[in-house]
Amino acid sequence: MRGRAIRWILPLLLVSVAGVGVAMAATASTTSKSGTVMTVHSSKFGTILVASNGMTLYRYTPDKKNASTCSGACASYWPPLLVKGAAKPTAGSGANASLLGTTKRSNGAMQVTYAGWPLYFYAGDKKAGQTNGQGFEKSWYVVGTTGALVKAPVKTTGTTTAKKKSAWG
Q: Model-level pTM?
C-alpha cells in the first residue's frame, strides 16, 4: 500500500516542483536592467512594441494609467516587463523615449510603462515575433507606437488586376 502511494505522490510532487521552477524562470526572464522597448513591423498588426529580446509586449484593458491590475495567477500568464531597482527603461529603435516610464506594482517591483500604460509579455509566446496573446478574452492587445491598443489587423491593400477583354466584347 505504501509503495503504491509513493508511486502516485512522487510524480505529482515532481510536476509541482517543475511548475514552480517554470513560473520562477518566467518571472526572472521579464526583469532586465534596461527595460528596453523597441518597435518591429508585424505584417498582421503594423508597427508594434517589443522588448529587447524581440518578444511582443501587450496591454491589459482593465489597467489604469500607471497602475497594473494583473497580479498573482494573472501575472504568471502575463508576466510584466520589469526593471531592476531604480533603473529607468530605455527606448530602442522606433520607440519614443518620452513615452517610457515605470509604475510600482503591488509587490514593490517596478513595471515598465509606455504612454503611462503597464506593459506585459504573454507566456504563450515562445519566440520573438509571436502574437498569440492578441485579443485574449477581449482584454489583451498588442501595443502600437503611440501606446494605443492595436485591436484589429491592419488592412492591406491588395493588388488588383484588370480583366482582359475578350474578343467577344
A: 0.75
- Please report, for residues 26, 73, 123, 150, the alpha-carbon distance to residue 14 in angstroms, rounded to integers and kept in the order given: 18, 20, 21, 40
Q: 101, 66 in Cβ contact below 8 A?
A: yes
CA pair distance 134, 127, nearest whole angstrom: 15
Rounded distance between C-alpha atoms, residue 81 and residue 89, angstroms:
10
Mean pLDDT per 10-residue interval, the chain, length 169 residues: 50 41 43 83 96 97 97 97 93 97 96 98 97 98 97 71 40
Which amino acid would we find at residue 64? K
Rg (CA), the chain: 21
